[in-house]
Amino acid sequence: MAGAVAACSPALDWREVHPDGSAGLGALFPCKPTSHARMLKLAGAETRTTLVACSSGGATWAVAFADVQDPARVGPALLELRQAAVANLSAATPQALTGTVPGATPNDAAGRFAVEGRYPDGRSAQMQVSVFARGTIVIQATALGERLQPQALETFFSALRLAS
After folding, report:
1. 35, 38, 34, 21: which is closest to 136 by C-alpha?
2. pLDDT 10s digits, 57-92
3. Cα–Cα distance, 134 to 62 (Å, whole number)
4. How far apart are CA 154 and CA 5, in angstroms?
5. pTM of the predicted structure, to 2 decimals
6. Residue 40 has pLDDT above 50, yes or no
7. Which long-range contacts (CB under 8 A, 24 or more apart) does 69-76 make?
8. Cβ atoms of residues 58 and 27 within 8 Å
9. Residue 153 to residues 24, 66, 110, Cα–Cα distance (Å)
């Protein structure tokens, strides 16, 4: 992994982050993220959702997570997270990508995908998103920018892990 990190733009200063309450998630961010939480409606109920994010290299890097508290709500919550990401960019159908997150609970609604669309101001945007879960914790990892660097995307998404 050190080779992948070294190959990225010097503007990216990678660091490992383990957000509290994220079911043991480990992630690499290319900048120092900040965290905030708010209540969002997710899978039919108000749910405390935490966002850990930063911006660097012309992109925003983020991980959001929430405990939906009922195994029956996990699949619907993952689908809602995926649909909201596509809708935010007024995008067409997302392109499915390969890859799973080590330690994630298997779920048919989990996956990684790429989206090309537009910001509200009309500028073009690229986004890659991974949605997955560990038990009843649903997680969405996102990279969003006008032009995403392939090496940075690979570093960010391949480093996602859930402690066993």
Report:
1. 21
2. 899 999 999 999 999 999 999 999 999 988 888 877
3. 18
4. 9
5. 0.90
6. yes
7. 69/136, 70/136, 71/135, 71/136, 73/42, 73/43, 73/44, 73/45, 73/136, 74/43, 74/105, 74/107, 74/109, 74/133, 74/136, 74/138, 75/107, 75/108, 75/109, 76/43, 76/44, 76/109
8. no
9. 21, 23, 18
What would the mean pLDDT of 10-39 be, rounded to a whole number? 90
93 contacts 83 by C-beta, under 8 angstroms: no
Q: Where are the beta strands (DSSP E) in 101-150?
A: 111-118, 124-134, 137-145
pLDDT band at 3 (very low <50, low <70, confident <90, very high): very low
Residue closest to 42 by CA, chosen among 3, 10, 84:
84
131: its two tokens: 């949605």
**Averaged pLDDT, 135-143:** 97
Tell me 94's DSSP state: P
